[in-house]
């Protein structure tokens, strides 16, 4: 495929994107960036930092801050490129797609919370698996991870279902 | 087991209405182009309100635009 053909394919793809697709793609990118920030901060931290409740709390505040700033920037970008579409409500099909996304996000979140509860119960009872947890405050990290993963699942599902003709198939 | 399907004549009616685009129809009905595309492909059954609006755009009665078929599998 020549570069001209690639450009045409890219232009066709961009033309086929609805404003809702663009919004979801940006939300997905923002959440991905937040996940990257959280994961890279944990990986770069020393053992003392990981064991410090104060450091973990500060990290969570930073994650919320980064999330808010990126959300504001993405909304400003959408406002710039939209032709009044930002204020338009979702149509009936988009609302159904949103419900499907929320359903899978809820399942992800529930699985994460159940896993965290199970881990906490094992840890409190001094049972095997929990004692070999890869990180201090592992239960907290499971819940934060489940929350972020649920957001990713929500946006990705909506984006895929929006692009597909069928909602449930 | 029975399969219910709502078919439609939207593609034909668009062609007859001066090759109206999906985008134009979507704007007149108040939905997105993706929704019109899904309805046209019989992959999404619209609400009564949207179905009536589509029929109104083409100036046809509802049953000329949408047909209900009940199939036994």
From TrEMBL, chain A:
Species, as recorded: Pseudoalteromonas rubra
Descriptive protein name: Uncharacterized protein
TM region(s), chain numbering: 21-39, 59-83, 134-156
Source domain of life: Bacteria
Keyword presence, Transmembrane: yes
UniProt KW keywords: Membrane, Transmembrane, Transmembrane helix
Automatic annotation (TrEMBL), chain B:
CDD domains listed in its UniProt record: HTH_XRE
Pfam families: HTH_3
Annotated HTH cro/C1-type domain residues: 20-65
Record keyword Protein biosynthesis present: no
GO molecular-function terms, A-Z: DNA binding
Cited PROSITE patterns: HTH_CROC1
Record key words, sorted: DNA-binding
Superkingdom of source: Bacteria
Annotated PANTHER family: DNA-BIDING PHAGE PROTEIN, TRACRIPTIONAL REGULATORY PROTEIN-RELATED-RELATED
Record-given protein name: Transcriptional regulator
Organism for this UniProt entry: Pseudoalteromonas rubra
Higher taxonomy: Bacteria, Pseudomonadati, Pseudomonadota, Gammaproteobacteria, Alteromonadales
